[in-house]
Amino acid sequence: MSSDRRDSTGVGGALTGRDDAEVRRWTDAYFNRTKTTIETFGDCEVTYAVFMRRPVVSAPRLAIEWLEAMAKRRGTAFRIDLNYAEGRWVGAGEPILYITGSFRHLVDLETLLLQKIGPASVAAYNAFTMCQELPRVAFLAMDARHCAGAEMAELMAYAASVGSDRAKRKSGAVGFVGNATDATAHYFGRDEGLGTMPHALIGYANSTVRAAEMFHEAHPDTNLVVLVDYFGQEVTDALAVCERFRDLAAEGKLSVRLDTPGGRFCEGLDPAASYAVLDRNAPRAIRGYRTENELRHLIGAGVSAAAIWHMRERLNSAGFDKVKIVASSGFNPEKCKTMALADTPIDVIGSGSYLPDRWSETYATADIVAYDGESRVKVGREFLLRRPTEEEDADPSERRARAAIGAGYGGPTAGAVSGKASGSDAPPNPIARGRG
Known about the structure:
This protein has about 425 residues and is α/β, with parallel strands linked by helices. It is about 40% helix and about 15% strand.
């Protein structure tokens, strides 16, 4: 994050650090009671292992930044051993990171820390999967309306950027090119959110063409993206908008957005016509589907593969082959996989459905695996213990990053990574290194 996005605690946006009173109010009561017990009987050094019960893409940066802020507030230091750098694939049960420090200062932070790791890592996994399935398609993160408050909105935008960056590295995917809000646009290298018009503007104008005219007059330098499903006449209204803005259409600055609800078919389609469209354009898709959901995404109501191919055919036959198609409505990993099966001609997808569908899968867990350097963990969680030869056997370029976070951050001790001097007084980047 750029410095102008940070507050006085060092954390950007909605994920501001909390003082001790706020932490006490928002953490689990048994952690608060454990803290007072430790204060009575004496502190010790502990090591936490943080892991997920399902495969994810590592998205720890905001959690680490928050932990950094809390360490500074408390005048202490936490050591982070990051097993899987940001954007790396993590298997179920594999510790994403280890955290070592004062038991007294860590115990009451567990609740809030886990909230910042689990959902982001699952959303990053989903975003990566979608971008990987459709590498030639640009994605917009349109999840803000579906988030439970500003903190979740920040976590999800960050997660989309992490998953997208992984897909770009792995397959050269276009990935997520922007999002809906100004507050989190910086995760995508932008100063402002993207988007043109909601259905409400078309209702206000009582005409799809008139709404496009009004928007273009108010924002003449913005490429025009027009919703075309308000009146249930997707093709008719799309062609009317193209006729009205022939210059923009010829320059590739006009897009039509399909957002047909799942309760009806796109104009001109029914099940039989949908089969026919796919038979002309992607016959293997019909023969290759495996589930009822895949079939619904191919030829069902709403924004199906057939609907998008239908729109592309009609635009091309009218001479508007440079007009782009933006698709939205329920584009999750499964739907994106089906669209890839049909080689669907989508230019941009607006998606909030990379958000975790099953929230129970987002639960991150932390267990203490060492007390004052002695390995100890509850029965059944022995897989979290460090392997004695882990560092000796690892390739130097893949060893875990270490960062002393908090008091003295950035000093000579903090500069040591994997047992070697960093050669600089600058703090090591716990995100940029790690294995996985």
